[in-house]
Design brief:
This protein has 366 residues and is α+β, with helices and mostly antiparallel strands. It has helices spanning 2-5, 55-58, 62-65, 78-97, 110-113, 133-140, 187-191, 246-249, 299-308, 349-362; strands at residues 19-22, 25-28, 33-34, 49-51, 73-77, 128-129, 143-146, 152-154, 158-164, 172-177, 182-183, 196-199, 222-225, 242-244, 255-256, 264-265, 271-275, 278-282, 293-294, 314-318, 321-326, 331-336, 341-345, 364-365. The protein has 4 domains: 31-176, 4-Layer Sandwich (Metallo-beta-lactamase, Chain A), CATH 3.60.15; 185-237, no CATH class; 242-282, no CATH class; 293-365, TATA-Binding Protein (2-Layer Sandwich). The longest helix has 20 residues, at 78-97.
Length: 366
């Protein structure tokens, strides 16, 4: 472009025009190149099988199967193959639209690129041009589709099976089992998480299939939960910054700290989104029948509130819990755990909303 051609060369007065300096960055005028992962200690002709866990791993597959003497088989789930092919084709379409002439690679000498203000994060001598469409098609013909939990024997040496991981569409974790050992269950000790949070169903085999111990996660530092449970996770890392969505900031109400007047505190609620080590608190867009409330519900105060709202009821006690029955509303309200838990039951949504408003009068909104 005209903007690029007007930039000063790097180094100054250099005869070659492929390097230009823009501020604290040195730009290279040349074809696109990528840096695939290096497997220096392994020869691809000795690899019998490649297990692809997700579509992102499929993008780099041609660098390992094409022009490397690879004669093995690649295993992947069908959704991984289809989604990976789609992204690979889009990348090739993008690179086809960018025309760059092949320049000399003398700038890849360490003495030169190590002098850049923006030193490359990897060795440019290991960069390679992106694969062609023919190489992509040849690579994908080597992929054998497998279904989840399907056992596949590899040359009689091992048996593999793919289990859904939930990372992306078609993604999986692989269980590799030989005659004497099973690989992958030992991944937790290697990762050594300080706390493993998982559903209670993975803590012990189900009553229906008690022999299926492969679904049990054995790890000491773990916390289990049931659907709807609320629990606290102790902080095991340094304090991190959390981005606040603009809609979350609208309801913020700061109050002073009792020790430091220059610090403001506010209670916020929302959905914490974590991606690429970035934390962001987004507003909870799900519709709720009632707000989150805190406090202890006193049966006498609740009865007075119902009287003021002209709601007829009958009151009794069952197993230490107070029950309010509303015949006209076809509804029942239970006050449990000494007033710290309230259950409203009614087939009619409007009646549940009405009784929720009565409870809200007696409690504080969070």
């Amino acid at each position: 472009s005209k903007l690029f051609s007007n930039l000063p060369t790097y180094p100054k007065n250099a005869p070659k025009q492929c390097l230009k300096r823009y501020g604290e960055h040195v730009l290279v005028d040349g074809p696109f190149e990528v840096h695939p992962a290096q497997i220096c200690s392994t020869s691809m002709d000795s690899v019998d099988a490649i297990l692809v866990s997700n579509w992102m791993s499929l993008l780099a597959l041609p660098f390992f199967t094409e022009e490397t003497n690879f004669t093995g088989v690649v295993y992947a789930t069908d959704p991984t193959l289809q989604l990976g092919r789609l992204v690979m084709e889009e990348l090739l379409d993008f690179f086809d639209r960018v025309d760059r002439e092949e320049r000399d690679h003398s700038w890849k000498k360490p003495a030169l690129f190590m002098s850049f203000p923006n030193i490359p994060t990897s060795d440019p001598r290991e960069w390679r041009p992106f694969y062609s469409r023919e190489q992509m098609e040849s690579c994908l013909t080597k992929v054998q589709r497998v279904s989840f939990r399907e056992s596949v024997n590899i040359h009689g040496a091992a048996t593999i099976a793919a289990y859904s991981s939930g990372y992306s569409i078609g993604s999986c974790n692989w269980i590799v089992q030989t005659e004497h050992e099973k690989l992958n269950p030992s991944i937790l000790p290697d990762l050594a998480p300080k706390l493993l949070v998982m559903p209670e169903m993975y803590a012990q085999p189900s009553l229906i299939s008690s022999q299926r111990t492969e679904f049990v996660v054995n790890y000491n530092a773990r916390a289990t939960f049931r659907y709807g449970d609320t629990f606290m996770i102790p902080s095991t890392t340094k304090t991190k910054r959390v981005r606040l969505h603009p809609d979350t900031l609208r309801g913020i109400e700061l109050r002073g700290h009792h020790d430091q007047n220059d610090i403001g505190l506010s209670a916020l609620k929302g959905v914490l989104s974590v991606y690429d080590n970035i934390l962001e608190l987004n507003p909870d867009m799900r519709a709720k029948i009632r707000n989150s409330l805190v406090g202890k519900l006193d049966p006498e105060i609740f009865a007075e509130t119902l009287t003021k709202m002209n709601l007829k009821y009958s009151q009794d006690e069952i197993n230490g819990n107070i029950r309010f029955t509303f015949d006209t509303l076809d509804a029942v309200v239970y006050i449990e755990n000494g007033g710290f838990r309230t259950v409203i039951r009614s087939p009619n949504r409007e009646n549940r909303q009405l009784l929720s408003e009565a409870v809200a009068v007696c409690l504080k909104t969070l």
